[in-house]
Amino acid sequence: MTDVSAKTVTTTGYITGSATATQPSRVKGIYYVASGTAGSITLKDGGASGTTLMIIATPASATATEYVVVPSNGVRFSTDVHATLANVTSLTIFHDG
């Protein structure tokens, strides 16, 4: 069994790791608050220019929230978890690692 951590962001950036330090992780769940315009959440392994592992489309609703459970053991990010937010008010990632 592993500990699960959570990190909330309101802008594009690293969930785990940084531009100078790696932090492998498994994404287990995602919670977001949408904005008034349809948008997306893109999760990449290896920073902003890394490999896209997940894309979640978000609705055009300033009050919409959604919790996405990632099945089984989650999605493995071998370097770091980087999130690009497009028209998303906030994002919380539940991860281990």
Task: Summarize, please.
The chain is mainly β and 97 residues long.
Q: What is the helix fraction of residues, given as a range?
A: under 10%
Care to count the β-strands? 9
**Which structural class do you get from the secondary structure elements?**
mainly beta
- Uncertain regions: pLDDT < 50 for 5+ in a row? none
List the topology elements.
Blueprint: E1 5-9, E2 13-16, E3 25-34, E4 39-45, E5 51-58, E6 65-69, E7 75-77, E8 81-86, E9 88-96
Antiparallel strand pairs: 1-9, 2-8, 3-6, 3-7, 3-9, 4-5, 4-8
Walk me through this protein's architecture:
The structure is a single chain. The protein has no helices and 9 strands. Strands 1, 3, 6, 7 and 9 form a 5-stranded antiparallel sheet that branches. The protein has a 4-stranded antiparallel sheet with strand order 2-8-4-5, with no helix packed on it. The chain is globular, with a radius of gyration of 13 Å. With 97 residues, it is mainly beta. The model has no long low-confidence stretch (mean pLDDT 95). A hairpin with a 5-residue loop joins strand 4 and strand 5.
List keywords for this structure.
single chain, 97 residues, mainly beta, 5-stranded antiparallel β-sheet, 4-stranded antiparallel β-sheet, 9 strands, 0% helix
